[in-house]
Design goal:
The chain is an alpha/beta fold and 864 residues long. The protein contains 22 helices and 34 strands.
């Protein structure tokens, strides 16, 4: 399954409340939906006017105001992450409201149900929107005068810092989580383009427009490829992507959206929480923010927490708890300028009960920074001869370290470490320098430093990636947080060495006695833009010493697994309480259906509605029985793929139910382990073989290797010896078959395929037909979507026909194709026509048409 399909690009969420709890007010053209919650607060949903677009068109911002029972109270403006909307803030807003804070959560312009275009935290638009929302808060009688804070994570964190700089008179406290200081240093570190993360970041704004975007012509950018981005942002991004170098226009946009230029204006006490597992905005970005704010004498507290953009599943509860404590401190009295510094020590203590390394929290009296200036440091010797390493043309194959949004997830799966370690180092492209075995535990906390000599053999520039690894006694290496430091050197002379001082990634890592440190220098990294020409370098140590940053900090919270588990559970419960209540209120619980336990698929009254009221699927019901091969038919836009995405748990339905073997389908449901899916095309790592791609995918599921049934899936897919070739050499048809083999791993009882023959030539289509038929012959069930009617007629036993989101027919191919009645065939059509002519009957020879095609066209009408 393509990784892009794991995220629903445009989410449409509406707060649905019991009718008895709805009071509709029309005041100055604004409709307010007011509901009462039993948890000590009430909510008010409204649209607030934002700053207009450059063409003068009005912009409305979708907001929810949380009002606690006891008022007036301090207020918090809560900003979203990029690509989300206000519903993503419900858990945090609920926690704050239950602790007595007024909260205004909102959807930023260009996202969800808010209007306007995405200008990317531009002071004239997103920041000015926030200023208008602060004015809106100041008008609320529930808000205590002079007590307004701002908080956000990632995109919202950047907005929080910018707002605090531009509106320092109103903002009295700030909490910014996993955000940036300077977008250019984050997206183009040391001049190297971080292409994967930048593409992922901007891709979240290229979602499917809402219906209101199509109806409101004033909001159109004129370029369908820009999604909801403002035209200037889109053009600057696209021009920079083509070259891998930021254009002057993009540099201006990034500078405007960066707190770095205005950080000294912030006078409100500020909390900075930054994730240790974050290849997008690493710890160095929080360090720059801390330095800039404290330079003005403003109190700052820094916390390095678990998780980050690479592992969003953990650490958010820590950020919420720290934010709540910070606001209580700020609004409860004076805040001292020197604040304690906390960080999470990964693998910090060995548990006597489990024998495993556990996590613990440490605290120092103040924040020391990352680069050793205020740190304790230690010197570690390195040895190794000069290495000549090569970079292939086009940067392929490339080492793989950080994968946007997945690095932490992959590292957490058992059995995946060997795979990720192998991917992150390509021997011919990597130089390594080794330390002696450590005789005592070494806590690395911050950015270590080393000096190298780089000699280009034929070029005047160099692009390299430097990292520090932990080498265990058994020879297995670990790349902490999957982080590397990219460096781009210019003005070099071929054959002449240049001395380079390198600041390594900011990490937290406990290195155990008996382990070694390995400094690696590589020529490629899949996450970054790489030179297109082949080249080579000689890399040597300019100094045999590695300066390691460490911190003398006391243990604040024990690493005892049970204690840590209890703490995590409590934090998770606090953070999830509001979400759980909201989910129960918004959605009735779908119960298992024991009577459907033997039915692979049961869909009843399914509805999927997107923003603006557009219904992609409208009241669709059908069943799929064991052993059937069911074809989902319909023209483009019929709702086929949306139906399949709901079926496999990628998106939630607006209404209706979906059961697989009697169990309700929701994201992450255990019953999905009985289902294999191929949705929206295959996505593989090109420099790995087909077999290696399949093993990496299976390892990421966390299921035992002996359950994969690799041989059976490969035999059915019919790839033969090509399974051990690199995927970059595969034809399109081979990639399609590999994608189906991936879906077949574990031999799921239900196989769901979206356009499996898309783009294949006739022989490849025939091969794919055989693949599906062979799989069905094993007694399992196949559901596939297709627009190739002839293939469906030859492959499927049953069909479901959809048109404009609705079900228009369902049944066996034989029944539906035979609905047109009997037909007469003759051995000699020419002679038959002559006989009819002699009898005075006019006859015309017409080409034969497949019966299913006739029926299909009759069902969908003449408008397609």
């Amino acid at each position: 399954m393509n990784r892009a399909a794991l995220r629903e690009r445009l989410r449409s969420r509406k707060v649905v409340v019991p009718l008895v709890a709805v009071l509709v007010l029309v005041v100055a053209g604004i409709v307010l939906a007011i509901t009462r919650s039993p948890n000590g607060y009430r909510t008010v949903n409204s649209f607030v006017t934002g700053s207009p677009e450059p063409n003068g068109s009005k912009v409305s911002l979708d907001t929810t105001l949380y009002i606690p029972d006891s008022t007036p109270a301090p207020a918090v403006l809560l900003a979203q992450g990029f690509g989300g909307d206000k519903t993503d803030l419900a858990s945090t807003a609920t926690t704050l409201a239950e602790h007595g804070y007024v909260v205004l959560a909102y959807t930023a312009r260009g996202f969800g149900d808010s209007g306007g275009r995405i200008h990317f935290d531009n002071p004239k638009y997103e920041v000015h929107d926030a200023e208008l929302l602060v004015d809106h808060l100041k008008q609320q009688s529930a808000v205590a005068p002079g007590k307004i804070a701002v908080a956000g994570s990632s995109y919202g964190g950047g907005l929080a810092l910018l707002l605090a700089a531009y509106d320092s008179s109103d903002i009295k406290a700030v909490a910014a989580d996993i955000t940036w200081n300077d977008l250019q240093t984050a997206l183009f570190p040391n001049g190297v383009f971080k292409k994967l993360w930048t593409g992922e970041l901007f891709g979240n704004g290229f979602g499917v427009p809402s219906l209101s975007d199509y109806l409101d012509q004033s909001q159109q950018s004129g370029d369908a490829s820009c999604g909801r981005f403002a035209a200037d942002v889109c053009a600057a991004y696209q021009a920079s992507v083509r070259t891998g170098t930021p254009t002057p226009a993009l540099k201006t946009l990034m500078r405007q959206a960066s707190p770095a230029g205005v950080i000294k204006r912030i006078t409100a006490p500020t909390l900075l929480t930054q994730g240790e597992q974050d290849s997008l905005f690493p710890l160095s970005q929080a360090d720059a923010n801390a330095r800039g704010i404290t330079a003005n004498g403003t109190p700052v507290k820094v916390v390095w927490r678990p998780g980050g953009h690479d592992d969003s599943a953990i650490g958010t509860g820590v950020a919420t708890g720290q934010m709540l404590d910070w606001f209580d401190t700020v609004f409860g009295g004076s805040v001292s300028k020197q604040q304690p510094f906390q960080f999470s020590e990964q693998g910090g203590v060995l548990s006597s009960e489990s024998g495993r390394l556990a996590q613990q929290v440490r605290q120092a009296a103040s924040y020391p920074g990352i680069d050793g200036a205020a740190h304790d440091t230690t010197s570690v010797g390195l040895t190794g001869p000069p290495h000549e390493i090569g970079a292939p043309a086009g940067g392929t194959p490339a080492a793989i370290t950080a994968i946007p949004g997945l690095s932490g997830l992959l590292a957490s799966f058992g059995g995946i470490t060997d795979v990720t370690s192998a991917l992150s180092v390509i021997p011919s492209q990597t130089a390594g320098f080794l330390s002696p075995k450590l005789t005592s535990t070494l806590l690395i906390a911050g950015s270590s430093q080393v000096t190298l000599k780089i000699t280009p053999n034929s070029t005047t520039d160099a692009t390299l990636f430097v990292a520090l690894r932990d080498l265990a006694p058994d020879g297995s290496p670990t790349l902490p947080a999957q982080l590397v430091t990219p460096i781009h050197l210019t003005g070099l002379q071929p054959g002449k060495p240049s001395t380079v001082h390198v600041q390594l990634p900011s990490i937290v890592r406990t290195v155990r006695p008996g382990h070694r440190l390995v400094l690696t220098v590589s020529t490629t990294d899949f996450a970054y833009q790489l030179p297109q020409d082949a080249r080579s370098y000689t890399v040597a140590l300019a100094s045999p010493r590695l300066t390691v940053s460490t911190i003398d900090a006391t243990v604040l919270r024990s690493g005892h697994p049970l204690a840590w588990l209890i703490t995590g559970v409590v934090l998770a419960l606090v953070a999830a309480l509001g979400v759980a209540i909201e989910i129960r209120r918004r959605r009735r619980i779908v119960k298992p259906r024991p009577d459907l336990a033997e039915v692979p698929v049961s869909i009843d009254a399914l509805v999927k509605e997107y923003s603006g009221g557009y219904r992609a699927v409208d009241d669709v019901s059908f069943r799929v029985e064991r052993g059937q091969v069911v074809g989902l038919l319909g023209p483009n836009g019929a709702g086929k793929t949306t139906t399949l995405r709901v079926l496999v748990g990628l998106i939630r339905p607006t209404a209706g139910t979906v059961h697989v073997f009697g169990e309700p389908v929701v994201p992450g449901a255990p019953v999905l382990a009985r289902l294999g899916a191929f949705i929206e095309g295959p996505g593989f790592l090109p420099h790995l073989s087909g077999r290696e791609n399949l093993r990496l995918y299976w390892a990421a599921t966390g299921r035992p290797g002996d359950e994969a049934n690799f041989d059976t899936a490969l035999e059915i897919a019919g790839l033969g010896g090509s399974i051990d070739r690199r995927v970059k050499s595969y034809s399109h048809g081979m990639k399609q078959r590999l994608g189906i083999a991936q879906a077949m791993l574990g031999l799921p009882e239900l196989l769901v395929l979206d356009e499996p023959t898309n783009g294949l030539d006739p022989p490849q289509i025939a091969e794919m037909r055989e693949v599906m038929l062979r799989y069905a012959q094993t007694g399992r069930t196949v559901v596939l979507s297709s627009h190739l009617l002839a293939e469906v007629e030859q492959t499927c036993t049953h069909v479901v026909v959809m048109h404009k989101g609705k079900l228009v027919a369902a049944g066996s191919v034989a029944d539906i194709a035979g609905a047109g009645g009997l037909q007469l065939s003759v051995a000699d059509p020419t002679r038959a026509a002559a006989v009819l002519h002699e009898a005075g009957i006019t006859a015309t020879l017409v080409p034969a048409r497949r019966a299913l095609e006739d029926v299909f066209l009759g069902l969908i009408g003449d408008d397609e």
